[in-house]
Amino acid sequence: MTPGDPEHDDAPLDSADALERRLRHIGATRYHNLHPFHHMLHGGKLNKGQVQAWALNRFYYQSSIPLKDAVVLSRFRNRQIRLEWRHRIEDHDGNFDTEGGIERWLKLTDGLGLDRAYVESTAGILPATRFAVDAYVHFVRDKTPLEAIASSLTELFAPNLHEERIAGMLRHYDFIQPGVMTYFQRRLEQAPRDANFALGYVRDHATTPEARQAVCDALTFKTNVLWVQLDALYHAYVTGMIPPGAFRPEGM
Amino acid sequence: MTPGDPEHDDAPLDSADALERRLRHIGATRYHNLHPFHHMLHGGKLNKGQVQAWALNRFYYQSSIPLKDAVVLSRFRNRQIRLEWRHRIEDHDGNFDTEGGIERWLKLTDGLGLDRAYVESTAGILPATRFAVDAYVHFVRDKTPLEAIASSLTELFAPNLHEERIAGMLRHYDFIQPGVMTYFQRRLEQAPRDANFALGYVRDHATTPEARQAVCDALTFKTNVLWVQLDALYHAYVTGMIPPGAFRPEGM
To answer: pTM, whole model, 2 decimals?
Structure first.
């Protein structure tokens, strides 16, 4: 990065406010709402097979989130934090008698005509999806607990993306029915609550410039996890270079 | 995969010979010599910036191999296997008074005009490169020792690729001098020795159809590690969608 680059931001990280400004700057320059694949998805520029590929691959991310959150939870001896974090697992897994986020995602893949057993097997996902998502799980295990929490901060930027997605997909795709978009509708309430806790946590617990830099780096890492998934989808299903063994939509 | 698909191969894995045939079939259908980026690299179709991006990213792979091999070595209580495996670390790291593979790779990046400190920092590599390479290190730690050894079997297919690369790059690129290609020349001797050991090991130690399938899956995983790296290079530097923060060649 060089001066003049839109990513250039080297204000000193000497306070919680400076940290929050930098985090929001990272979101504004690196969050995957900026990715061309999302512009195409929300603008009605994809065909059904491309939307299937997106939902199929994204299922691997969704279904790994409770594993990731269980690892985060396991990093804290502080019961209060564990209680706070536990509801994330509940949000995704639901309860015995209620659905969670993973089940809602499967309604989306059902609605797109994908076989549920095939989706759940993850056999057809892009290897890049698997590597990126697994990197996220490894990150929260191997880095400090502060960095593990910080890597969740992309949720600060999720609600705007989800609003745009719900509106755009319902408007543009006749193969998308409102009932299959409940995952995103629920996240509109869940994500801000989660993001506010994580933001407060890093503001309070990153008390040196070095720790604040580590928090920023964790968020950057996470934006890469998301960006890589869309790069891989674009390369495989827009450019058309589907790697060996991956899902092939009808006609591709 | 469906019948008629070139990847389709479901002969029963009921012997070491059947295992070896399947492994060679995986190589013939999934090894990254088949990737369009390699065809461009070896056929003189890339510009200097694209070759720089390849060498820069591939440095992260090269420099992670001794870490990977140290993890493999750590999985074996059998001293004979540790002795056999240790020379791989030596091949890459050299000794105090002799260079190894990593140093030879840096001669290539030097020769391409890349700053050595920048290369060694890995700051400009593609996130997909990092995730794929790190997945390899995690794989040999988390899977069985048999699978850890099996994942090295792409070396069975490396010598042909390296011969093609040496000839192609020297013929087509005036910015490539013979002295910077010593990495590949050395690997022409090293890879067959290593591959023969690993092949003999899996032939002897995978004694059930299930274990042989796990060996095949480990090789498929490894071909994905390699393929993802070229997909990411193609997407960033041929299609031109360089992700935030990654190396930008002059003029791109």
So the answer is: 0.92
